Amino acid sequence: MKRLFIAVLFVSALTAAQAAEVAGVKLDDKLRLAPGGPELVLNGAGIRTRTIFKVYVAGLYLPEKKGTTADVLALAGPKRVAMTMLRDLGAQQLSEALAEGIRNNSSAVEQETLKARIEELLAIMNALVEAKKGDAILLDFLPDSGTRVVVNGQPRGKPIAGDDFYRALLRIWLGDKPVDGDLKKGMLGQPG
């Protein structure tokens, strides 16, 4: 009986060390974007709420923890924004929200520079038709190839070049006009 109790404690401690949970969504504390690639840590996570509706859980993964937007944007290396849908959403709604987030947090010059790549992202997202409750949408940045969109484990479209593009994506959640202030705090690992 004593051994069973110790085993249960060990498994509980191991599980707690490997995953965080937000709104019933489990997020790994650490992961790799590619086998043998560098390890990323969960910087923080939170819930995207629009009016009264919980839309998705988002987690930010970085090579090392950072507590400010400037530090996150300056950090080199691979990164991931992991979104898990908490409700069904049309692809057009999701695309429009991403485009609006970029517009709200990028200068006119940046938007012009990124225009073709934003259109690439929107085409990938619109091809989804819809995002259903429970779907996992990953926006990965791989320094050698760019931004990769992965939906439920399946890569979509081709990688979108440029770390400037990924920084624009990150500002959707972490910029001066984030889509959700509480989510920004959560992704930066700050108390809500």
How would you characterize the overall build of this protein?
With 192 residues, this protein is α+β, with helices and mostly antiparallel strands. It has one domain: Chalcone isomerase, CATH 3.50.70.10. Helix content is 40%, strand content 33%. The strands form 3 sheets. It has a 7-stranded antiparallel β-sheet. Helix 3 crosses helix 5. The protein starts with a helix and ends in a 5-residue tail after the last helix.
Search tags:
192 residues; Chalcone isomerase; two-stranded antiparallel sheet; alpha+beta; globular; disordered N terminus; seven-stranded antiparallel beta sheet
Please report the distance between the alpha carbons of the first and last residues: 41 Å
Based on DSSP secondary structure assignment, what is the total number of beta strands?
11
Identify the strand order in the major beta sheet: 3-4-5-6-9-10-11
Q: Determine the mean pLDDT.
A: 90
User: What portion of the residues fall into strands of 2 or more residues?
Assistant: 25-35%
CATH fold-level topology: Chalcone isomerase
Question: Briefly, what is this?
Answer:
The chain is of the alpha+beta class.
Secondary-structure map:
Layout: H1 2-18, E1 19-22, E2 25-28, E3 30-32, E4 39-50, E5 53-62, H2 69-74, E6 79-85, E7 89-90, H3 91-105, H4 108-126, E8 130-131, E9 136-142, E10 146-151, E11 154-160, H5 163-174, H6 181-187
Antiparallel strand pairs: 1-2, 3-4, 4-5, 5-6, 6-9, 7-8, 9-10, 10-11
Helix pairs in contact: 3-4, 3-5
